[in-house]
Amino acid sequence: MTDNIKREVVCSGIRPTGNLHLGNYFGALRNFVKLQEQYDCYFFVADYHSLTTHPTPGNLYQNARQILVQYLAVGLDPERATIYFQSDLPQTAELYLFFNMNAYLGELERVTSFKDKVRQNPNNVNAGLLTYPTLMAADILIHKATRVPVGKDQEQHLEMTRTYAQRFNSMYGSEVFPLPQAVGSPAGLVKIPALNGSGKMGKSEGEASTIFLTDEPSVIRKKIMKAKSDSGPTEMNQKKPEEIENLFSLLKAVSKLETVEYFDDLYNRCQIRYGDLKKQLAEDMVAFVEPLRQRILEVGADEEGLRRIIDRGKEKARASADRTIAEVRHVIGYRD
Ligand code: TYM
Questions:
Q1: Known catalytic residue: 203?
Q2: Is the pLDDT of residue 3 over 70?
Q3: Catalytic residue among 6, 34, 115, 117
Q4: What is the three-class DSSP state of 300?
Q5: d(C-alpha 47, C-alpha 85), whole Å
C-alpha cells in the first residue's frame, strides 16, 4: 500500500494495572499484531486511565514500561504501528474535556464496568471512574480510528464512543468523527474465562485464576491443575457446565484442533478424565507462554531501545492528535 492512499485507522490500549494475561492476549493483543500489517495503527499504554486506582508515583512509569515491553515482546513493531504512552498525548485530555460537556450523569452511571467498580471498591467512586467512557472515546477519536481491537468486556464502551462521536457531530453540524467498531475474531468478540470456573480472566478474579504471559512453567502447571472442574458427565452428549466449558475454551485457545476434538469426544462418551485434560492443557499452555516470557525478559533488558521507541511513538501520536484537535477547536468555535 502506498502512503498516498489513506488507510483505515486502528486504535486500542491496555491499562498498566499489572502483567498482561491470556485474556489481554486473545482478546486484544493478538489482533493488534495482525492489524499492524494492514492498517494505520495506534497502540498505547493507558496510563491516564490507571490513575482511577491511584498508583504511587514510584509505580506509575515502571508499570507502564512493563506493558510496553510486553507489547513489543508479542510482536508489535514500532516500524509499523505507532506505540506510545497515553500520558504523552495531552491532546487526549483536551478532547476528554470536550466530550465530558456532552456526557450525562444518568448514562455514565448505567455503565456496567462502572457499577462493577462501585461494588468492588465503594470507597473510591471518583469522577475519573464515572467518566471512564469519555476518556476512552477521546483515546479512540483523537486519531479518528474506525476499528478498535478489544475483548468482549469493552463492547459497551465502544457503543458509548459511537454515542459521543455522533453527539459531537450533530451538535456542531460536522462530520469530524467516524463511528468506530470493536474488532474481535471472526466469531465475534472474545472472552477468555477465569480458571475458577466463572467470570472472565483478569485481576478481579484473582492471581490464581489468571495466567500471565510472565508466568513460569511451574506456576502455569500449578494454576491449571487447580482449575475448577467437576465429577464428570453422567449422560452422553451432555451440555458442559460453565467450568468445563471454560477449560475447553482455554484448550481451544492454545491446543491443536485434534486435541480439542479428542477430549470433546471423550466428554461426549462420558469417558473423560479431567486430570488428563488438565495435564495436556498445562503442557500446551507452557509451550505457548514460555517463548513469550523469554522474549519479555530480553526486550525488558534494552533500556535504551525502549526509550527510543517511547520518544518516537510520542512524536508520531502527537502529529495525528494535533490535526484532530485543531479541527475540533475550530468547529467548536475557538479562534484558530
Ligand atoms: P483492560 O486494560 O482491562 O484490558 C485490555 C484489553 O484486554 C481485553 N481483555 C480480555 N479479552 C478477553 N478475555 C478476557 N478475559 C479479557 N480481559 C481483558 C479487554 O477487552 C481489552 O481489549 N478500557 C480498556 C483500555 C482502554 C482502551 C481505550 C481500549 C482505554 N482506552 C481505547 C481500546 C480503546 C480496558 O480497561 O482494558
A1: yes
A2: no
A3: 117
A4: helix
A5: 7
What's the CA gap between 139 and 100, in Å, rounded? 13
CA separation for the pair 258, 269 (Å, rounded): 17
- Give Cβ neighbours of residue 36 (< 8 Å, ≥ 6 apart): 10, 43, 76, 77, 80, 81
Other beta carbons within 10 angstroms of residue 246's beta carbon come to: 25
What is the model's pTM? Answer: 0.96
How far is ligand 1, taken at its centre, from the CA of residue 336, in Å? 36
**Protein residues with CB under 6 Å of any ligand 1 atom:** 11-15, 23-24, 26-28, 46, 49, 136, 139-140, 148, 150-151, 153-154, 157, 190-192, 200-202
Q: What share of the chain in percent tops pLDDT 70?
A: 99
Between the alpha carbon of residue 297 and those of residues 20, 23, 69, 89, 307, the distances in Å are 14, 20, 9, 28, 16
Residues 29, 20 contacting (CB under 8 angstroms): yes
| Residue 141: predicted pLDDT | 98
